[in-house]
Structure formats: C-alpha cells, structure tokens
Write a structure and sequence with these properties.
- This is Phage abortive infection protein.
- Keywords: Membrane, Transmembrane, Transmembrane helix.
- It comes from Aeromonas veronii.
- With 256 residues, this protein is mainly α.
- It contains eight helices and two strands.
- It has a two-stranded antiparallel ribbon.
- Strand 1 and strand 2 form a beta hairpin.
- Helix 2 runs antiparallel to helix 3.
- The two termini are 50 Å apart.
C-alpha cells in the first residue's frame, strides 16, 4: 500500500470518526429509521390480509378478478370476520403506538420543563456566587509591606494584591520580596472566603455540564477567572482540587 492509497483512505477514516463523534446525528438517524420501519410494518400488515383475501375469494377460475359483488350473506360474513380478525389487531396496535407516543411526548415535555427549571436555578446560583467572588476581588484592603527598611501600608484591592504576590514570587529581586508573608497575612481572611466561593462556583459549573451537557456557561467563567486563578495557583495560595480540575490549573504551575 503506497502513499496514494493512504491519501485515499484517510478522508474515509476521518468521515467515519466524525460520524461516530456526532451522537446527535446518530440518534436522529436512528429515530428516523425506526419511524420508517414502523410505517412499513403497519402498511404491510394492513394490506396483506386484503390482498390474500381477494387472491383467495376474488379471483375466477381463469385468474381474472371477479368485479361483481356477491349477494350471498355468508360470503359477506366471512369477509367481515376475516377483515375484523386480521385488521382489528393492527388497528389496536396503531392505537397503542399512538398512546405510547403521546405518553413519551408528555414525559419528554415534563423532563424538559424540569431541566429548564433546574438550569435556571443553577444559573441563578452561579450568578450569585460570581457576584460574591467579584465583590471579594475588588474589595479594598490595607496592605502592609517593608520598603527600604521601613514598614508602610497602603490601600489596594484583593485582585491587585494577588497580582503583587504573583509578581514577587516570579521576580526574585522584587522590591517587596521581604514582604511576601506580610501581604499574605493582610488578605488572609479574604483569601479563605475567595477560595470557598471559587470552590462553590467550580462545583456548580461541573454540575451544570454533567446534567445539561452544555459547556457555554463553563467556558465563559473559565475565561473570566482563569487569569486570576492562575496567579493564585502560582503564588501558592490555597485552591481546592475541584477548582484545579475545572479551571485546568494542574499543568499551569511552572518553576519561577
């Protein structure tokens, strides 16, 4: 097998892989195939008794159709009994399928309504948790540092304080390198609450994806908070395992 054969086969393999990756397409095709099969079976069961009956009783000896209606009531009784005995069960099956489809549709609608309610509840919890995180990140706090041998303080929000800790660790000759523990102690309480709220947000995002199979909301908060969480992680600030997993921070830490 040469290179030209591989070039011809690769697109086929890619199409096959893409076909199986698309679960929605597979379910759609299967549903369509099942519906077509049901219709075909119903048509065959409905028409076959009539065909067999007319082949048996509606043909003359020379295999031509007898177009005259019989006046014999016994023939009509036999015809009615035959049709009722063969087509009746088909009608019952069709009625059962209709009831079953109605029940299935109502169950699906109820499930969608419940999922919609759950989704709204989860989104509301995610939004309120995000508001708490933002409130903590941009809360002004008095920071103590040692600068040129003197202890000084100034007000700075938690977000910038975390960025300062990250820069101090990243830069060995940083002017505040001796103030690392002082800065951390100054915002220690806020860091505890921040870690807890981020853990809650991570759990909610993971739950939302597992239940609704939708990652749009997770991606939004991933890009919204990943930078500050990366700085927290590299600054050796406490983050829970679920936060590391959801925001993919396990591979972020590098030697600084």
């Amino acid at each position: 097998m040469g290179q030209s054969d591989q070039i011809q086969i690769c697109p086929i393999v890619e199409i096959w892989q893409n076909w199986w990756v698309s679960d929605e397409l597979l379910r759609y095709v299967m549903n369509k195939a099942i519906k077509i099969l049901i219709v075909m079976v119903v048509v065959i069961i409905s028409t076959l008794p009539l065909i067999l009956y007319f082949v048996k009783f509606g043909l003359n000896s020379d295999f031509t159709f007898n177009t005259t209606l019989t006046h014999n009531m016994d023939d009509w009784g036999a015809f009615g009994g035959f049709i009722g005995g063969t087509v009746g069960p088909v009608v019952s099956i069709i009625a059962f399928i209709g009831i079953w489809k109605t029940y299935t549709l109502q169950s699906l609608q109820l499930k969608q309504a419940n999922n919609q309610r759950k989704s709204e509840d989860v989104q509301r919890l995610i939004a309120s948790t995000s508001e708490r995180i933002d409130s903590l990140l941009y809360k002004s706090k008095e920071i103590f540092v040692d600068f040129q041998g003197q202890r000084t303080s100034y007000n700075q929000d938690i977000h910038n304080s975390i960025a300062m800790l990250f820069n101090i660790i990243k830069t060995p000759d940083h002017e505040f390198k001796n103030s690392l523990s002082q800065i951390t102690d100054s915002i220690s309480i806020e860091l505890i609450f921040l870690s807890e709220d981020i853990e809650t947000l991570s759990w909610l995002l993971e739950y939302q994806v597992s239940i609704f199979k939708e990652e749009t909301l997770k991606d939004y908060y991933y890009y919204r908070y990943r930078m500050i969480l990366t700085m927290m992680y590299k600054a050796n600030l406490s983050l829970q395992p679920i936060t590391l997993r959801v925001f993919q921070l396990n591979e972020e830490k590098k030697s600084v």
